[in-house]
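Fill-in record for Synaptosomal-associated protein 47.
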Amino acid sequence: MSAELPVFEDTASYYDSSNKKWSPGIFTLRENYFQFQNNDNQRTLRIPLSTICGLEKRQSSFIYAAIVITIGSEKHWFASFSNRDTVYNLLELFWRESLLSKTYKTSPPRQNVGATPLGKELIGILHESETNLVNAANALVHQGRQLQESQMVVEDINTDLNVAEKFLKSFNFIRYFMNVKVSEPKVEEKTVQEDGQQKHFKVTFTFSKASNDSWEKGTLIISDEIVLLDERHNRIAVINKDGLEKIQITTPWEFCLVYSAGWDSKNCYIMCPQLSRLLKFLNCLSSFKYKIVYDEEDSLEDKLVCSSSTSKGNKLRTPSPIEVIKNSSNLIDSTAAQAQVLADDGVISDEDMEEISSVLTNLQVLASEVSREQKNQMEQINSLMTDVEKTELRMKADIKNIKKAT
């Protein structure tokens, strides 16, 4: 269903560098790729989101407000959107999620292979190694998602500290100016939830599905209440369990919050690429899980639940990524050499040799990507540790200033 249903579709124009002219057409964003179709149907441009290297807003005196999408060293210019900010926000949200949510799968086995006993044994060993490497790669993907959530929490803490420090400076200035003794303030602590559960999700949102309304970037915080923040961390909506009427799931990435505001009911439409994880968390909260409603009970619910359970199943027998990479690299080199010798001697059939070469190629690509992902995550962990240390020192300094002021 998700492969057929577009996330967003709008009229646009694309700059054809070969003909040096703008071509009108339809820009379509889907869960894993975007495409541009000319009005005359002579050309279709289709690009996976995972291949995007850069995304930016551009404008010049000769063109309308445009979006420039960088693929490798090539830049693709798109303009004439009805609302450029909406397209940019949605494209950025799903692009960033595609970088974190990339899943790996084993290559499908070919037919008519394993004609010789030795070839069958070698192919079995290779497929088993490929499965272990795929599980390790998916474990790294899950770990990268956890690192992103941790980084978001640190950013939110620093945002709160900015507000607290601003009020503290104002408080100290007024106290010094008036030269009065300030009574000891009572700090009211509000627990987010009895068990301390809280999750943050990057989203885009709108309060109307009309074409002239823009999808804005924001953050959805779920705890004992649902809080929607805009890009500047201003509260847009605060919905408690009594005010929430239902959570309407419309697609695998979109849902609608229906809640009461005074005597009226309001609708807030939200796009979230991590909707399956969001629903999994909501189902753990007794105050919200019974208010989840699916448009198509069988297809949508099964898709969202299965996607989360599959990723959970992959983690059950995940070996160490470093260990898998080393073992796979050694296996690739030795197996390739042995298989070639056996093929030359006629011990392995040509079909088996073809299957072995295919699996070895896939193993090499997987090992390279896992190694690169592990390196990126190590850099991210070091950066996160530095940010946490700076935040800790900042909090200690603020605590000292508060004690002095009181």
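KEY FINDING: Confidence is low (pLDDT under 50) at residues 180-195, 308-319.
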